[in-house]
Amino acid sequence: MFNKCLIWLFLVLGGCAFPHEIKGRFVDHFTGKPIPRVSVYERGNQKVGVSSDENGDFTITADGPTASFPFWPGGCHEGGYFVLRERSSVEVYSLNAPLGGARFPVQNLGADVGNVSLRPTVSLRLYADKTVSALISYPGEARVTPGWGWRKEHFFPAAIPLDYAFQVVVFEANKTHRSDVIRVSLERGCQDIVLLFAEGKFNWMGLTQK
Question: Which residues contact 143 (CB under 8 A, 6 or more apart)?
Fold first, then answer.
């Protein structure tokens, strides 16, 4: 009888949706300084959301066993997201400088992801002399950041991490053009980059190629 009660209790508690906390600290990739006011929210549930404090610290609670939590600094730094996997682990991803899907175990109904290091980024504005499609690629990586279909003007918000190799690829109807591989220096800061594409040639405005 006692064993039956234990089994019943296990089944009841196992079916309960206990809340899980995800906590950590956002810091700058290069300086290690905290990043305040980073917004973190649950995808599909805008009522669940927090912002990091002045020390970069945050804590957000998930009610379900699986959830995704995008985060966005809203300033110079890149964004990303956390993924809670079946109450067993939390994975950390970044949009522009991948954190490799770092995984942290859930213990005592929570997971501490520690310091989440974010690179400062810049946005790219591409102006072409004809309708083109475009994307940003990152040498040695499979990922790309696509543009907005076929048009003369493309905007890539926060798509280029500072001191990070990238290349712009422009597609015409029957031809593909690739820029040189570029790195934006830390000294330049987070001002937008302007790239002109005309007659099949790239012209970086005010940007020294490295």
Answer: 98
